[in-house]
Amino acid sequence: MPAQKSAEVQILEDIANKLRIHSITSTSACNSGHPTSCSSIAEILSVLFFNTMRYKVLEPRDPSSDRFVLSKGHAAPILYAAWAEAGLFPVSDLQKLRRLESDLEGHPTPRLNFIDVGTGSLGQGLAIAAGMAFVGKNYDKANYRVYCLVGDGESAEGSIWESIHFASYYKLDNLCAIFDINRLGQSEPTSLQHNVEVYQKRLEAFGWQSIVIDGHNIEEIVKAFHVASTTSDKPTALIAKTLKGKNFPKIEDVENWHGKPLGDQASIVLQHLEGMIKNKGPLKIQPRKPLKDDVSPVNISNIKLSSPPSYKLGEAIATRQAYGTALAKIAENNSRVIALDGDMKNSTYSEKIKKIDSTRFIECFIAEQNLVGVAIGAACRDRTVAFVSTFATFLTRAFDQIRMGAISQTNVNFVGSHCGVSIGEDGPSQMGLEDLAMFRAIPGSTVFYPADAVACERAVEMAANTKGICFIRTNRPATKVVYENDHTFAIGKANILKKSSKDSVLIIGAGVTVQEALKAAEELEMSGVNVRVMDPFTVKPIDKDAIIKHAKEVGGRIVTVEDHYPQGGLGEAVLSAVAEERDIIVKKLAIPTVPRSGPPSALLDYYGISAKHIVAAAQEITKF
């Protein structure tokens, strides 16, 4: 090897050991963290940040820069150290790791301007990286590359293999995954330990270029990244054989050091590492900048329907169908609106976007965890407005990804169709009955539950412009249009669909139960009982002021009715709204048990949320 190259290799080795030192001192300062997990990837991060990746240090989210996702988020201290050594912030700040007042948290979050997504719940980073790479290749059509570092323990997660399949299927040759095969898990060795040939064969079987390397050999790492950058039509995986606690005397490759600061061993290890560093002064190598700024700015604000809703009052149309119509309308008006689905596009009607631009539909097949992760990655750095759709119940499989999406400050929009017993004969495995509870629990989320096609189109339009996670709950059966096409909707503002000065009960329904509430109101009126019917439009935020106001106007009596389990849905949202009010009573109608198959109308009646049961509930509550 030429002398100049040997000098560069030595510098990169020195940087790796400096990163190890920072990982030890920062975790020792807070007496917690994962220094041994950091140590196994020190050479990899040294090469990535100071040889391979092209990025602007002082503009970490520059759209033309390469992306890096640390899927094994517990190794955050060494990632922070890499950015500090690159010059983004003072190295001394690393000693603030895990403090309450510091954004250098135990696992990475986008509170830091150099972090795109939160990681640490293992098995999720590769899907996000794949979403970034998909956008880079197909929409930005840019030179930036995406790197994702995956731990060997988390590679047991099925979600990782969903993402491996996705990246291969879409030939994401701008994606490089690095598998840190350090052998040791948290409580015992991983199932494959150092059997790197098995990893290689599995990845090759999935259609990846797979390169086995010594993860502590700078020359091998540099060469492998170069091969990855020149490969076309397939993603590349570097299978790096590493040692946990590398260069830590008496700790290297030893069990029971996971997630522990080095304690009284720290000084010995630090002395050893300092002795390995040949270049003691400032760094003699700087990160590489992008070859050119080849990513154009995009505007994803003020997205509008290309035409207003156009329905007739009383017309029966499913809100899932209106979702597809609205999706196509906003896609027509903004080239960065994209749709992702899990092989349900002809049921969710997300396929309608393909009539506008077929390239803006991403089929993720039946792999919901990857579906969500790809969307989160696609939305990073505000490159797209992503809508994810599938049956509402199947989103429960990806709840951890959705939860982490909130930590990642994502703006992904979710649309869950086929909710509740109203789907009919398909039975309980297909019925979304927990979805409202799930999405209401997500911090910062907005939960839409449109009553008809007009409301649904406007919900889609609003979701496209709303920060944070949005969820739109759509129905399978056709329901009557109850709003004029020019009705004005607002997030957190309820609408009154029936009202009189003689009302004695406030009935609050959503989606299909709005229809049942209106039927019940007609029946009650014929018997001399007047009721008020409210459609909340959003279940979160719930219109607390309107609920209290109208409840008091009807004598403090509320009946809620929902096609959802009793826990966490509309009824409990209403109960929360009136919890501190005196003299208000709420009777809650919901699906009380695991349902069974049957015709939709029969199921609504059997499980107590049809008009007949609303009438009975209203009559009963008027006795109070």
Characteristic terms for this protein:
624 residues, alpha/beta, 7-stranded mixed sheet
Which of globular, elongated, flat, extended, rod-shaped describes the shape?
elongated
Q: Sheet with the most strands?
A: 7 strands, mixed
Helix coverage percent of residues? 25-40%
Structural class based on helices, strands and sheet pairing: alpha/beta
Using DSSP, what is the number of strands?
19
Question: How many individual helices?
Answer: 20
Could you tell me how far the N terminus lies from the C terminus, measured between alpha carbons in angstroms? 90 Å
Report strand %: 5-15%
Rg estimate, integer Å:
28 Å
Biggest β-sheet: strands ordered side by side in the sheet = 8-7-9-10-12-11-17
| Low-confidence parts | none
Arithmetic mean of pLDDT: 97
Quick rundown:
This protein is an alpha/beta fold. Helix content is 36%, strand content 14%. Strands 8-7-9-10-12-11-17 form a seven-stranded mixed beta sheet, sandwiched between helices. The chain has a five-stranded parallel beta sheet with strand order 1-2-3-5-4, with helices on both faces.
